[in-house]
Specification:
This protein is mainly alpha-helical and 226 residues long. The protein has one domain. 53% of the residues lie in helices and 4% in strands. It has 10 helices and 4 strands. The strands form 2 sheets. The protein has a two-stranded antiparallel ribbon. Helix 7 packs across helix 9. The longest helix is centred in the N-terminal third of the chain and has 36 residues. The chain is globular and about 45 Å long. It starts with 17 loop residues before the first helix and ends in a 5-residue tail after the last helix.
Length: 226
């Protein structure tokens, strides 16, 4: 993560807005509780379907994500792939090349299970992240939850993105955000991180509420999901 800590020459740190932070955290706590209550039946049914569909745990064993100020955290997701999917990727050179070439996504990924295809399409696999929100690792609305290696490798590929990464890391990742309502997996890293930086600088509760409303049709239509 060295590249993420050496961008001081680009832009000054954003000023802390205590009022914004208070109301955003309040919305996160209330939203997290309401989300867990409302979606708990779906999450229970999903967990049962995952166990019946394939061998392995209910939750995905994915690499750590980068949170606010570069702190790593474990993001909760329902397992939508076969067991040891990350190890399989590392051993399959052709799959790995496509993964990196397409900004860390694979079209028609053979590791995805039958149940996984459905829950990814309508973002059910993301629902456990409400627990991350309550813990304080994430927000309801925020930047994309990036992988450490993704940030490092993509900054080398897109050097101009370093100034945006510096801004992005001053905010918590979100269950939804600008990237999700604007194309999700169809947006490459350089544009995605620039959009995230713009969101962080905006600091608007009203804008957060607008993004939440815009997320609903995107999820229902499965736009940009892989």
């Amino acid at each position: 993560m060295q590249d993420l800590e050496t961008n001081e020459e680009y832009l000054p740190s954003l000023q802390e807005d205590k009022s914004f932070n208070f109301y955003k955290r309040l919305i996160d706590i209330l939203g997290g509780i309401v989300g867990i209550i409302i979606f708990s039946p779906i999450m229970i049914i999903t967990a049962i379907c995952i166990k019946l569909d394939s061998k392995g745990p209910v939750f995905a064993d994915t690499p750590m994500r980068v949170g606010k100020n570069g702190k790593h955290f474990k993001m909760y997701k329902f397992r939508s792939m076969v067991v040891n999917a990350h190890k399989i990727l590392q051993k399959d050179q052709k799959l790995l090349e496509e993964y990196k070439k397409n900004s860390y996504k694979i079209i028609d990924d053979p590791r995805i299970t039958n149940v996984g295809k459905l829950i990814r399409k309508v973002s059910i696999d993301e629902m456990p992240q409400f627990f991350n929100v309550l813990k304080g690792d994430m927000s309801i609305v925020g930047i994309r939850p990036y992988y450490p290696f993704e940030l490092e490798e993509q900054q080398q590929k897109y050097p101009q993105s370093k100034k945006f990464v510096k801004i992005v890391l001053q905010s918590k990742p979100g269950i939804t955000g600008v990237w999700q309502v604007s194309g999700r997996s169809n947006i490459n890293f350089d544009k995605r991180v620039e959009m995230d930086a713009g969101y962080v600088q905006k600091k608007s509760i009203l804008y957060d509420l607008q993004l939440i409303l815009r997320t609903i049709p995107v999820v229902l239509l499965g736009k940009g999901a892989i």
